[in-house]
Write a structure and sequence with these properties.
This protein is mostly beta strands and 294 residues long. The chain folds into two domains: 168 residues, Immunoglobulin-like (Sandwich); 114 residues, Immunoglobulins (Immunoglobulin-like, Sandwich), CATH 2.60.40. Helices cover 5% and strands 55% of the residues. The strands form four sheets. Strands 3, 5, 6, 8, 9 and 11 form a six-stranded antiparallel beta sheet that branches. Strands 13, 15, 16, 18, 19 and 20 form a six-stranded mixed beta sheet that branches. A hairpin with a 5-residue loop joins strand 18 and strand 19. The longest helix is centred in the first third of the chain and has 11 residues. It is elongated and about 80 Å long. The chain starts with a helix and ends with a strand.
């Protein structure tokens, strides 16, 4: 038999919040990172932090179906696990065609959980665009976002809104763990354009510590104080196991005083089936180039 508190929570989840409250610090709802490579399966957990007296929720998570195929979602192992809690599942939708997962759940009997709780585990598989044209390079990084996110609490028999901030993540195929970037920087951090011309050399140094060959590339993106923006592709090369190499680029600067902030990234180059290239990069190196015109 449903209790009054359970009925209130169910009404809250599916309709309009009843008793809003103000919190000094909102709860955080987030998804765990997806680190699987192309063609691999993964599980991502949606969790809530700082949500005291949590009694139910209604969340919708969206992914790009060109990039990720959803295969299921479960409450098993979460704070709302039916094997542990007596729960009412109001919605449990997994629609791979549009990349949607929606779960709406309430705990029966006036029980609450928190302040930190796993809400639902989402499973899927990363599509492989190297063998079939399911995604282009422009679709990476691919967002994993909340299209709706509501938490319900129970305090003294009253259903309350738990203020929350919902933070998704992004999926990017991992750069090969064996491809180590030693760092990216400019040949001349301070550049006298009259003495050295209008270009400054850029480079990333990388090494392949693995046992198989890796195709690597580098990209240098920049923005200057004077408003100059752009990027330079350093090209790509194949590293044999144990090989060390340098990937070079060239930054062309105006004949005027300026300061360029450059982000250099090196990583694995992935050739997609449609002929485009995707750079799966590690953490970028940030450096500056100062243009001094006498």
């Amino acid at each position: 038999m449903l209790t009054k508190a359970t009925m209130l929570i169910a009404m809250f989840i599916m309709a309009i919040p009843l008793v809003p409250v103000n919190a000094a610090k909102p709860a955080i709802v987030s998804t765990s990172p997806i680190t699987a490579d192309f063609g691999s399966a993964f599980t991502s957990t949606v969790s809530a932090g700082g949500a005291a007296n949590l009694a139910g929720y209604d969340i919708s998570v969206r992914v790009n179906p060109d990039v990720i195929t959803l295969t299921g979602a479960t409450l098993s192992g979460t704070a709302f696990d039916p094997a542990v809690q007596n729960v009412l599942i109001l919605r449990s939708d997994v629609i791979p065609e549009i990349g949607l997962v929606r779960f709406a759940v309430a705990i029966l009997g006036g029980v609450t959980v928190g302040p930190s709780a796993a809400l639902v585990n989402i499973s899927g598989q990363v599509n492989d665009p190297t063998s079939s044209t399911v995604a282009t390079a422009s679709e990476y990084p691919s967002s994993v976002s909340f299209s709706s996110c509501t938490l319900a609490g129970l305090v003294n028999g009253n259903v309350i809104i738990i203020p929350s901030t919902c933070t998704g993540t992004t999926y990017m195929p991992p750069s090969n763990v064996a491809l180590q970037s030693v760092g990216c920087r400019a040949i001349n951090d301070g550049l006298n354009t009259l003495a050295k011309g209008l270009t400054d050399g850029l480079f990333c140094r990388i090494t392949n510590t693995g046992t198989s060959s890796i195709t690597a590339g580098a990209l240098f993106s920049y923005r200057s104080v004077g408003g100059v923006t752009g990027s330079v592709n350093g090209g790509m090369l194949t590293l044999a196991p144990g090989q060390f190499a340098e990937i070079d680029g060239t930054l062309t600067v105006p004949n005027a005083n300026d300061i360029f902030i450059v982000s250099g990234t090196a990583g694995r180059v992935i050739m997609l089936a449609d002929g485009s290239q995707l750079l799966a990069s590690a953490t970028p190196s940030i450096f500056k180039v100062v243009v001094n015109v006498p």
